[in-house]
């Protein structure tokens, strides 16, 4: 992500200001991949697919596949869920997705707990939900209902902008809709069952997911995962909305020098994020720690805010 390469965070996107409302829209919280969020497949979830809670509310967006590679044997009693953490971009804070393995007995609550705790594997990611605690998450009455701990701040802290407050709520919406594979709105309540707005946002009556291009970072790397080990070939996948579907990428050594530079092509571009894949030949690299970076193409040639990017550190054995 751009923080690791020192890109300045510029003005917040005007579309973000306009789009993050309680009514939202009917856009699925997807990033184009089967495993990102609510999948359209009716297949039984496995440790490499999101948790399903049996909701009949299925998203209508076509499903494509560029799923994370799982090299370990499936762990009994676990599922993989997407968690949407916050990170910096040239257009202000946006949501970056990270797949996490959680216990299958209560994946929604576990996903929410990872989110509010900012417990990301990628050090570039964090949370805007500081101080929020989650007592339970359940699906009922056509909604995903989050019971907040009584000590949770219901108003945004000093210095938190309205855009950040709305994005914080959207991080919860995207995470829970993705884990539950549903487009049901997300409601927050207190332990006594009474509706509670979160960070001053009207969440008590339910919040839908805002459009992807308004809240998500425009490129997100799925593989390699942060801290992965590779040799010979580096399998790369992710999602992006990049000009003409071009996704430039590079491998940097420990000094930040580019040792590999190339590009791949996403399936489409323009209206949402679409999958991309690449096989990167790293056979010529010496053993050590490297950084993979994927970017959006910059048709403005430096005149605009600059490309979005996401990075993952990996080790060549």
UniProtKB/TrEMBL annotation:
Keyword Signal (UniProt): yes
Cleaved signal peptide residues: 1-24
Domain GerMN: 82-187
Biased composition (Low complexity): 34-71
Region Disordered, residue ranges: 20-87, 295-317
Listed InterPro entries: GerMN, Gmad2_Ig-like_dom
Keywords: Signal
Residue span, Bacterial spore germination immunoglobulin-like domain: 219-303
Name listed for the protein in its UniProt record: Gmad2 immunoglobulin-like domain-containing protein
């Amino acid at each position: 992500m751009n923080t690791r390469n020192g890109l300045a965070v510029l003005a917040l996107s005007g579309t973000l200001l306009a789009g993050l409302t309680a009514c939202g829209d009917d856009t699925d919280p997807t990033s184009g991949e089967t495993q990102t969020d609510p999948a359209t497949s009716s297949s039984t979830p496995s440790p490499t697919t999101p948790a399903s809670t049996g909701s009949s509310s299925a998203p209508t967006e076509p499903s494509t596949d560029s799923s994370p590679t799982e090299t370990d044997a499936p762990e009994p009693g676990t599922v993989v869920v997407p968690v949407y953490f916050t990170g910096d971009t040239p257009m202000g804070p946006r949501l970056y997705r990270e797949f996490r393995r959680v216990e299958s007995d209560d994946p929604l609550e576990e996903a929410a707990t990872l989110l509010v705790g900012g417990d990301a594997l990628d050090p570039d990611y964090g949370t805007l939900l500081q101080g929020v605690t989650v007592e339970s998450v359940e699906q009922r009455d056509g909604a995903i209902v989050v019971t907040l701990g009584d000590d949770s701040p219901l108003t945004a802290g000093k210095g938190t902008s309205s855009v950040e407050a709305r994005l914080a709520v959207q991080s919860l919406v995207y995470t829970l809709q993705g884990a539950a594979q549903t487009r049901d709105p997300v409601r927050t309540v207190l332990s006594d069952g009474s509706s509670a707005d979160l960070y001053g946002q009207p969440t008590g009556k339910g919040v839908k997911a805002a459009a992807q291009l308004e809240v998500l970072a425009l490129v997100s790397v799925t593989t390699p995962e942060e801290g992965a080990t590779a040799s010979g070939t580096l399998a790369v996948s992710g999602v992006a909305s990049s000009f003409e579907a071009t996704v430039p990428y590079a491998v940097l050594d420990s000094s930040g020098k580019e040792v590999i530079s190339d590009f791949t092509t996403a399936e489409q571009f323009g209206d949402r994020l679409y999958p991309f894949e690449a096989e990167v030949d790293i056979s010529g690299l010496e053993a050590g720690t490297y950084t993979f970076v994927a970017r959006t193409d910059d048709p403005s040639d430096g005149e605009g805010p600059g490309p979005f990017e996401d990075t993952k550190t990996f080790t060549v054995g």
